[in-house]
Amino acid sequence: MRPAEPAASLTTPPTRRPRGRRRIARRATPYLLIAPTIATLLLVLGYPLFDMVVLSFQDMTRKELFAGTSPPWAGVDQYRVVLSDHFFWVVVARTVAFAVVCAALTMLCGLGFALLLREVSPWVRGVMIGVLVAVWAMPFMVAASVFRWLSDADYGVINWLLGRFTGSDFQGHNWFANPWEGFAVIVAVVVWGAIPFVAITLHAALTQVPAELEEAARVDGARGVTLFRHVTFPMIRPLFVVVAALSTIWDFGAFSQIWLMRGGQPERDYYLLGVYSFIESFAVNRYSAGAAIAVVTVLLLLVGSAVYLRQILRTGEIE
Amino acid sequence: MTSGLRGLVAVVSTLVVLASVSGCSGGGGAAKGSGKLTVWLTVDAQESWPDLVRSVNARFEQAHPGTDVTVEYQQWTSKNLKLDAALAGHNVPDVVEMGNSETVNYIVNNAFAPVDPARFDHAGEWLGALREPCEYNGKVYCVPYYVGARVGISRTDLLQRVGVTKAPTTYPELIAGLDALKAKFGTEDRAFSALYMPGRYWYAALAFVKDAGGEIAVKKDGRWQSTLSGPRSVQGLQAWKDLIDAYYVGDRAKDNSDEPAVVGQGKVGIFYGNTWEADAATDSKSGGNPELKGRFASFAFPGPSGGPLPPFLGGSELAVPVKSKKQDLAQDWIRLFTDRTSQERLIKANTLPNNTAQLADVDADGVNGPAAKAATRGWVTPQAPGWAAVEKANILQEMLEDIATGKHSVKDATKAADGRIDAVINKN
Amino acid sequence: MSIDSRRRRRRRRADAVGLAAAAVMAFPVYWMVLTAFRPASRILHVPPRFWPGPFTLDNFRRAIGSDTFWANARSSVVVGVGTVLISLVVGTLAAFAVARFAFAGRRALILVLLAVQTIPLIALVIPVYLLLNDLALTDTLTGVILTYLAFALPFTVWMLRGFIVAIPPELEEAAMVDGCGRLGAFRRVTLPLLAPGLIATSIFGLVQAWNEYVLAYVLLSGNDKRTLPVWLVSFQTGFGTDYGGLMAGATLTALPVVVAFLLVQRRIAAGLATGAVRG
């Protein structure tokens, strides 16, 4: 993790180059290089995002949407209504808990896989990577319908297995009647789908840890957990934090899994911020309230991801 | 390495060009606007009467040379999101299919153009359940397409084995039949349901509300008010809950969307559904079992009140978006698609026609006979501007699930639902 | 000797745990493939059958035989490949700038790239639709590619930046001293070294673009322009879900990505290893 300082060395102009126009050209180069990216982001994300923020200060109904007329200004009314609703805060707390639990489990399992990948024989590694890749490639909606079916009350494999191994009767047991159990299934889908990315990325990082380093530590008597905690983990820590932060962010915005697992009709017990915003916008047609919820979601995420940004800044690499 | 790299760069740039070119040709920007009529139907037409769609398109293109019809099939669950986006833009379909409980909100928000009923066959005899959702301020904004009425469907072979040879006509007869089924097959197989009635099946549950003389919502002084916690509504829902408790052993938290597949597994004695679901239960394409062919019969489901259970008339309408640039052509396509001949084809597909005149043509002894009879007692959801939101926010489904699973009493669940419905039912 | 045998035991134990973990992970995939080959009447069954029984290709026949399968597959390929290639080209430029130049606004750019990933895509459906509508790009694959680019680019730039940083700038400088321009140096020195990174990054982008559903559904209305995930939903009809067809279709949809992934697997591991640690 040597702090890279390539920028400095390249921007010091080689002395034989003439100054003047070329220097301006060189000054302009980075901006030219980033221009296409910036343009795309501004157009396809920036503009709609701006739209969304404006929308959250208006009161848009289908009438204005269809006619293309501009909706009446509502000031902070939407926010006042949303933020003063007890249910909204329940959803916020639920979303935070969901994201943290999912991300923690994902990182734990992903790290476990990555560590295992180092230990196993090559052919087992091949099998494991093949499985990870197949899981990764599975479309969301298919994964959701498979899991929905596995957890089906009447035809599900899970109930059958539980009945088989615990001896008690699970036939007809509905996993979604109790939100705690329902979320257990949903967390399982999310974590299952997210493990491959984390496992493969961390595995790649682990292969970079010099073998001599661990060997030396072993000679010094470090074993197992101690070895991992004091030698191996510090090496992959920066990446680990970044991946963990990304996972949390993605899980915070979870929508498809819940939407699909509840057959497009989630109960209020299953609302997370993404689902709540979507229902307000597109089911109840309170587009502005939906937009306000989305804006609050983004703000919460930005606050939360400050940790992640700080870590990245701290590694010093973007200096 | 360098030459390999150059090759790579060449391949990359070619592919980029190809991708953007094919992307553009995929756009077909030029084709739009000229001679193209875009029709959005739901997947039902694709599944059940694709030949009708083809023949109507052929007839239309003959009558209007130079205009091609493109039919795009939509899913019920996600159709409106897509429609909202399209209606907000300029690139709108010329004809859209809407559920009869979805139209009101679109009409009051000026999404659809008025149509001239005189152009359509049997316009004077359109079913009320389909006509009313199209009317607003004295104008007609959509055209009835077809309707379905739910009936009881039984496994005749199973009923015969418990000694029941004729379809139940009264509620006590129905209960007796269910008891017999439960006593024989329910004890043999704990997964056997004498009656299939999942908890979120709101079309069924609300039929019991109607049967007890209750209402979902009523209009008072120009404002809609939910009345699910009224004494009659509660009585109806209690009867529905008692049926579930007594005869249904499956998952109470799901809806009826996989009904044919479940029935196809052979562990259901009687279910309440559309007549085509009996066919679907024997079709492996929808998860059914072909071996069950010929073992189903339909009957008018008796209600606790003594009469037949009033069925929800779920149907479809066809509307022309106000932004369509070919409204006249669009109406003409709808005219052909809903004319007498087309409706005959729908009757053949075990669907009910859009008018009372042809309802009489439905074979009274056929599988759809009881449905045609029940249709005259049918009901529709409240014609309130916010009704679609009530459906889409799953208020009814959640209330029923709470009742069915015993999480809340009927009284508490309906009270909570009334509050949530009142909050949205009057909003555009 | 004893150390050796202890190692062997340790490895055997690891193998067993690894295989068990893989089996648990693989089960849903196995279930999907199993169902895809099962006759429809045997699919919903209690108790579940875990081993292949009667075998049928009917589900695949029905999936491939559906009217729009090939057209939808083509759309998916165009969108997937288009998104990946364009984001690689555009992303490499930006990543190069971020990794190699010091310029005002660089830090801000990086923060934006990271922050952008927090935006919930679902909230932007209608604004994005209206925007593409103004550009006359709804119902075009170009529009979908453009939208996906916005979501793929930040990640691409971020990943590639890590890879480029890992390449010693001295190499480029040496090439420049040898008379190459900066562009020449980039092409001859940096790009070849970057190849594993490009491949690794492209796979991430490909998986995302290949499996995205909501935007594709809303933006594309023509039946034959739809991408495969949208097509898959058509197995859920008003009659119930055709699980056999759905799972067969899903298997077909997932297959290209799995194959692509396995083909370049080694490169990915190598690429990630160099790029990732500095992520």
Automatic annotation (TrEMBL), chain A:
Keywords of the record: Cell membrane, Membrane, Transmembrane, Transmembrane helix, Transport
SUPFAM superfamilies: MetI-like (SSF161098)
Main location group: membrane
Highest taxon of source: Bacteria
Any single Gene Ontology cellular-component annotation: plasma membrane
Region (Disordered): 1-21
Membrane topology reported for the UniProt record: Multi-pass membrane protein
Entries under PROSITE patterns matching the protein: ABC_TM1
Residue ranges with Low complexity bias: 1-14
Localization per record: Cell membrane
A Pfam family: BPD_transp_1
Domain ABC transmembrane type-1: 92-308
Residue spans crossing the bilayer: 31-50, 87-117, 129-150, 183-206, 239-260, 287-309
GO biological process terms, semicolon-separated: transmembrane transport
Classification via Gene3D superfamilies: MetI-like
Family according to the record: Belongs to the binding-protein-dependent transport system permease family.
Name listed for the protein in its UniProt record: Sugar ABC transporter permease
Species of origin: Embleya hyalina
From TrEMBL, chain B:
Signal peptide coordinates: 1-19
GO molecular function: maltose binding
One annotated Gene Ontology cellular component of this protein: ATP-binding cassette (ABC) transporter complex, substrate-binding subunit-containing
PROSITE patterns in alphabetical order: PROKAR_LIPOPROTEIN
Pfam families found in the cross-reference section: SBP_bac_8
Keyword Membrane in annotation: no
Name assigned to this protein: Sugar ABC transporter substrate-binding protein
Species the sequence originates in: Embleya hyalina
From TrEMBL, chain C:
Annotated GO CC locations: plasma membrane
InterPro entries linked to this entry: BP-dep_ABC_trans_perm (IPR050901), MetI-like (IPR000515), MetI-like_sf (IPR035906)
Family membership noted in the UniProt record: Belongs to the binding-protein-dependent transport system permease family.
Keywords associated with the record: Cell membrane, Membrane, Transmembrane, Transmembrane helix, Transport
Compartment list: Cell membrane
Biological-process GO terms, alphabetical: transmembrane transport
Residues annotated as transmembrane: 16-37, 77-98, 110-132, 144-168, 189-210, 243-264
Entry-linked Pfam families: BPD_transp_1
Organism: Embleya hyalina
Domain ABC transmembrane type-1, residue spans: 73-264
Major location category of this protein: membrane
Entry protein name: Sugar ABC transporter permease
PANTHER family in the cross-refs: INNER MEMBRANE ABC TRANSPORTER PERMEASE PROTEIN YCJP (PTHR32243:SF18), MALTOSE TRANSPORT SYSTEM PERMEASE-RELATED (PTHR32243)
Domain of life (superkingdom): Bacteria
Membrane topology note: Multi-pass membrane protein
